[in-house]
From TrEMBL:
The name this protein goes by in its record: ATP-dependent 6-phosphofructokinase
Region (N-terminal catalytic PFK domain 1): 1-363
One GO term describing the cellular component: 6-phosphofructokinase complex
Phosphofructokinase domain: residues covered: 4-309
GO biological process, alphabetically ordered: canonical glycolysis; fructose 1,6-bisphosphate metabolic process; fructose 6-phosphate metabolic process
Key words of the record: Allosteric enzyme, ATP-binding, Cytoplasm, Glycolysis, Kinase, Magnesium, Metal-binding, Nucleotide-binding, Transferase
Protein species of origin: Pristionchus fissidentatus
Residues that, per the record, bind Mg(2+): D105
Role: Catalyzes the phosphorylation of D-fructose 6-phosphate to fructose 1,6-bisphosphate by ATP, the first committing step of glycolysis.
Shown part of the complete sequence: 101 to 463 of 870
Signal peptide: none
Family (UniProt): Belongs to the phosphofructokinase type A (PFKA) family. ATP-dependent PFK group I subfamily. Eukaryotic two domain clade 'E' sub-subfamily. Belongs to the phosphofructokinase type A (PFKA) family. ATP-dependent PFK group I subfamily. Eukaryotic two domain clade "E" sub-subfamily.
Residues engaged in binding ATP: G11, R74, C75, G104, D105, G106, S107
């Protein structure tokens, strides 16, 4: 069997534990040695107790827990060559040449860079006498498989990322709660949801929670959005609705690229319509709590497939990402996904909204 290490990186998400569990158990089942790396890339750079052997029982009783039991971090040290050199040494010390990275596109891009640098890092370690030439020759490269853990569902190449479904569950529960109080007081509520530069959570929530209006970054509203919004809210009220729900993605912008914040929307509604309006920012509640059945299964399936993919890799294999595509687990080249994800951002920066939406639409 091979020696594998698994780590979670970047913002956490519900279902990461399920993926970790699955990697550990599938790895052990196939005769591999599996290590945890605590605190993401930081633990890889710092080494020591951060890298520890996992056993079958160390992942019992975690599938139902939100977050990640092995910790996660956004790490600046790993962005520097010195940091990657330390990480390389720490892995080699334990004969780890197979990595499973659970994180967002930044974390996966980092993994790709690490693989590219590996041969040079080996040379440097040999030159400084830290490792022998034999050791370098025995471990000529590192095999990497990624899984996307993020509530944002902002990664091209997979239909769903681990955590999105649970976040949606949190959001619609919160909106249902807001609706009941809004109803009593005939209020309008502007609810801000997460998603960074991606409108997926906002859009799907809008459908699932029967919102009157949704603002997302990929499709900014027409310049006269204030009038359009107010007309729509008035119509809903005229039809007997006692409340309004407006969803604003945290990354929402107008056609000039200026932020459309929940507070701004509230001011528009208050000034133009004089409706009693409140803002609710859901924040990190969306990223917490128990993972849904969907995310638990997604983590299980992706984790198992990640180990199977590693087992088939050679030193020449390029990193891949495990994706869900039409309910099948598939392996997609990591850099292809990262490049497509970056293309969405580029289209948005260029105000090419049609292109942004088109790129987002393809899994
Ligand atoms: O990527 C997940 C996410 O929750 C985004 O939706 C949000 O913009 C960001 O992370 C918040 O980051 P932090 O947890 O560092 O405040």
């Amino acid at each position: 069997g091979r020696t594998i290490a698994v780590f979670t990186s970047g913002g956490d998400s519900q279902g990461m534990n399920s993926a970790v569990r699955s990697v550990v158990r599938m790895g052990i089942y196939l005769g591999c040695k599996v290590y945890f790396i605590n605190e993401g890339y930081q633990g890889m750079v710092d080494g020591g107790d951060n890298i520890r052997l996992a056993d079958w029982n160390s992942v019992s009783d975690i599938i139902q827990k939100g977050g990640t039991i092995i910790g996660s971090a956004r790490c600046s040290d790993f962005r520097k060559p010195e940091g990657r050199l330390k990480a390389c040494f720490n892995l080699l010390e334990r004969e780890i040449t197979n990595l499973v990275c659970i994180g967002g596109d930044g974390s996966l891009t980092g993994a790709n860079q690490f693989r590219k640098d590996w041969p040079d890092l080996l040379k440097e370690l040999v030159a400084s006498g830290k490792i022998t030439q034999e050791k370098a020759d025995a471990n000529p490269n590192i095999q990497i498989v990624g899984m996307v853990g993020s509530i944002d569902n902002d990664f091209c190449g997979t239909d769903m990322t681990i955590g999105t479904d649970s976040a949606l569950q949190r959001i619609i529960e919160a909106i249902d709660a807001v609706v009941s109080t809004a109803q009593s007081h005939q209020r309008s509520f502007v609810v801000e949801v997460m998603g960074r530069h991606c409108g997926y959570l906002a859009l799907v929530t809008g459908l699932a929670a029967e919102a009157d209006f949704v603002f997302i970054p990929e499709w900014p509203p027409p310049v006269n959005w204030r009038e359009i919004l107010c007309t729509k809210l008035q119509q809903q009220r005229a039809e007997g609705q006692r409340l309004n729900i407006i969803i604003v993605a945290e990354g929402a912008i107008d056609r000039d690229g200026n932020p459309i914040t929940a507070e701004l929307v509230k001011d528009v509604v208050t000034e133009k319509l004089h409706y009693d309006t409140r803002v609710t920012v859901l924040g990190h509640v969306q990223r917490g709590g128990a993972p849904s059945a969907f995310d638990r299964l997604l983590g299980c399936r992706m984790g198992a497939e990640a180990v199977l993919a590693l087992m088939e890799m050679t030193v020449d294999s390029l990193p891949c990402v495990i994706s869900i595509d039409g309910n099948q687990m598939v392996r997609v080249p990591l850099m292809q996904c990262v490049e497509r994800t970056q293309a969405v951002q580029k289209a948005m920066n260029e105000k090419n909204w049609e292109r942004a939406v088109q790129l987002r639409g393809r899994s």
